[in-house]
Amino acid sequence: VEFPILTVNEVFAAGSPLKTLSDSREVSSTRRLIFVDSEVWKFHSATICEYFKPQSTHSEIVVLEAFEDRKNIDLLRLCLDEIDKFGPLRRGEPVIAVGGGVLMDVVGFACSMFRRGIPYIRVPSTLIGQIDAGVGVKTGINVGDSKNRLGSYFAPIACINDPSLMATLPTRHVASGLAEAIKVAIMRDECLFNIIEQRGADALASRMAGEVDAEIIDRAIKGMVAELKDNLTESSLERFMDFGHTFSPSFELTHNLLHGEAVAVDMVLCCAIATIRGMLAHKELTRVVNVLVALGLPVVVEPTDAGKLMRALRESTVHRGGKQRLALPTAIGGAVFVEGIGQDDIVDALALARKMHALAH
Ligand SMILES: NC(=O)c1ccc[n+]([C@@H]2O[C@H](COP(=O)([O-])OP(=O)(O)OC[C@H]3O[C@@H](n4cnc5c(N)ncnc54)[C@H](O)[C@@H]3O)[C@@H](O)[C@H]2O)c1
């Protein structure tokens, strides 16, 4: 599997590869079906229409309200109906998904199913989209409170990042994306952590438009690619990029958190477990809590209890083939996989996380 992850300045301007990229071995045209997130549409409809304007190409734009609580089978069905109505050439007219992780996950899933797979291009418009959801090959939808319970591994033919799209992203969503960058940093890139520690608040204020912010995006993508490239379809269930994703599925939807916010709470819990086990120095736990708090990210959620978190760990253990394979940091920038975490560990870690939260506020 190979696909380019490109960064361009204006993805909806003449010269953008959006209309020319296709599976070039096949008959192709510039006719496109474009799914656009409704918030992106609010701010960028003029440039999108202008870019796809020439009527001769008969492109279609479908605006979707693709919020997390709509990432379900109804939205998937709607996408499939639109694709069916449009009738793209089997290979030469890739569907384009412009939006955050939700829209790209649902449209990608639909494309993986339609005629058992038609090409699509991702144009991520959020920070999570650009550094995380756009990078791997996973697609999916939620079922009830179960995150991404249905999905597929299906690579796009390209992912095109345009950082300027994030100028309109609400601050809370930028912080949510920075949480995923912090995940990469804690697991494998101390330098990235240092940059976010020093410049994270500025990056938030400038909505990732500064020079240092480009470095944050670039390092986060590189770290993610390095972790995923040899394990795209998860033949190995030991994944450092699962850090922050063990306990969080049990409270992300129920507590109405953004994805990165839930990841932040999970990361603190795991760092607290590592500290109590003597694997991670207390001062490093403090740095993690401080960097999250400085970005307005949560470090604990209430109400929560150890029993519920233990059930989430059991659920993750099923997902990971019967072993916990819990990624725990041994330093900022290094980690190992651990087994044998019990409810007592979670009780103690929760107490420590609450204490750290109280100290930081
Ligand atoms: N497939 C993967 O590998 C992968 C990886 C990480 C996350 N995800 C999934 O991604 C989702 C989270 O992604 P997200 O954080 O991008 O959330 P999202 O797609 O819900 O987008 C966040 C919000 O920002 C709005 N928005 C999007 N672009 C905007 C823009 N440019 N300007 C203004 N508003 C804009 C959206 O309408 C939405 O309200 C979760 O469902 C998660 O499971 C998938």
Q: Describe it for me?
A:
The longest helix is centred in the middle third of the chain and has 18 residues, at 171-188. The strands form 3 sheets. The chain has a 6-stranded parallel beta sheet with strand order 1-8-5-4-2-3. Strand 2, helix 1 and strand 3 (60-64) form a beta-alpha-beta unit. The termini are far apart. Helix content is 45%, strand content 14%. The chain has 361 residues and is α/β, with parallel strands linked by helices. Residues 37, 39-40, 43, 66-68, 71, 99-103, 105, 125-126, 128-129, 132-133, 136, 138, 147-148, 165-166, 168-169, 173, 176, 259 line the site of nicotinamide-adenine-dinucleotide.
Residue share in helix: 40-55%
Provide a count of the helices.
Answer: 11
Distinct bound molecules: nicotinamide-adenine-dinucleotide
Largest sheet: 6 strands, parallel
Count of DSSP strands: 10
* End-to-end Cα distance: 46 Å
Give the ordered list of helices and strands: EEHEHEHEHEEEHHHHHHEEH
Computed over alpha carbons, the radius of gyration is 20 Å
> Oligomerization state of this entry?
single chain
> If strands are numbered along the chain, what order do they take across the biggest sheet?
1-8-5-4-2-3
Strand content: 5-15%
Broad structural category = alpha/beta
Low-confidence stretches: none
The average pLDDT is: 95
* Outline type: globular
